[in-house]
Amino acid sequence: MDNSAGFRIDVEAAKALINWKSLFADEVATRARRLAADSGGERVTLLHYRQAAQMAICSLSAAILDGGTSGEGQKVA
C-alpha cells in the first residue's frame, strides 16, 4: 500500500525542498573539490565529500531558517 497516495504537496513547499536539495548538493561538490585541491590530491575522495557535507550542513540550516525560497532561478538538481 502506498502511504503517500493521499498527500498533496504545496507548491511553495516543493520549491523550497528543490532549492535546499540543490543548495546542499552544489555546496558539497564545490567544497569537496576545494578540499581535494587544498590537500594536493589528484582525486576527490569519500573523506572529502564527508568533510564537505558536514560543513555544508551549516549553510543548509541557514537557508532553511531563512524561510524563503531565495534560490529561485538557480539551477535545480
List keywords for this structure.
77 residues; mainly alpha; 2 helices; disordered C terminus
Layout of strands and helices, then pairs:
Elements: H1 11-38, H2 46-66
Helix pairs in contact: 1-2
Write a short abstract of this structure.
The protein has about 80 residues and is mainly alpha-helical. It has two helices and no strands. The protein is elongated and about 50 Å long.
Run of helices and strands: HH
Rounded average pLDDT: 85
CA-based gyration radius:
16 Å
- Major β-sheet annotation: none
Tell me the span between the first and last alpha carbons: 29 Å
Describe this structure in words.
There is one protein chain. The protein contains 2 helices and no strands. The chain is mostly helical and 77 residues long. It has one domain. The radius of gyration is 16 Å and the shape is elongated. The model is unreliable at 70-77 (pLDDT under 50).
